[in-house]
What does this fold into?
Amino acid sequence: MIKRCEDIRDRIGAWMDGELSRSGAEEVRVHLESCQACCEERRQLEKLQASLEAVLVAGPSNVSFERFWPGVEQRINRKRVWHEDFFGRVRDLLTPPQLAWLVPAVIILVLTGVFSFESFFPGSRLAVQRNNFAAVDSIDAFGRNVAVLRENETKTTIIWLYQNQEGEDESTGEKTDASPSF
Amino acid sequence: MSLLGKRLTRALLSSSILCFLAGFAGAAEITSQIVQIKIGAILASNQGDEFDSRLAPLEKQLKLMKYRSYRLLKEESQKVQRKGNATFDIPGGRSLVVTPQESGTKQLALRVHLQQGGKPLIDTTVRLNSGGNFLLGGPPHEGGALVISISATAQ
It folds into this structure.
């Protein structure tokens, strides 16, 4: 029961301000009808609210705004030069609440750039570096030895056909000076 | 948000959408039937320390092979239909036949057949991304080894 009272008291302020849902407000109202302690809490809050309102309403009447008006009027009537206007707008745009649009926009632009880079520049070195790995589906070296090297850093695939064991190519009789050479 | 902010946001969103559409259009283009095959025949050897400046884009790939000298002997490019043959004459009386196979949107499958004097040396099928390349090497040539860079770009 104590826990329930604590829960209700936490919500009395919101209930008085009309911020609770229909069911929540009804729950608080029913509880207040049956619980003296919480009802007393409500009365205290009402008194506090009334006092605050009185101070806030009475306060401004004691302040003299007359000396502020000329400055305000002057600022309203002053014609702003174009660059002040422009930088003012840019500043407004880049202040934190308005800046929120920039984050998804930059992410979208970066992702778009990355994914469409190859479409726009198919022959570029960057695109080739990113996508260069080739996969060997099948290979037939007609009885010769063959090796496939895949190197990660440069994303390179090399298919290397070895010379015959005698060190001589059967078709040309040419000799090579190094093999394998990786 | 100010009027300028709204306009900028709209402009950014519109350009993003356009970029995406352009990217997809590019991807769709890859399914077209023409493939550009580019080959470079390179002599890799340990005679001298020459590195042909025309091979600069391939330098990192070629240096994997630990030869001291690399010289571009021949460079040729051909456009070919899918399932069509691109035949290249390779130094040393060899010939290379490259046949683009069926492939997905961004990948190409190439059947590569290297022969010498009518005798087949190697027959392989390789899948690579459009714009990518691979190296085929090993046949002896002029005291070194012949390395062939093969790249394919869907158009």
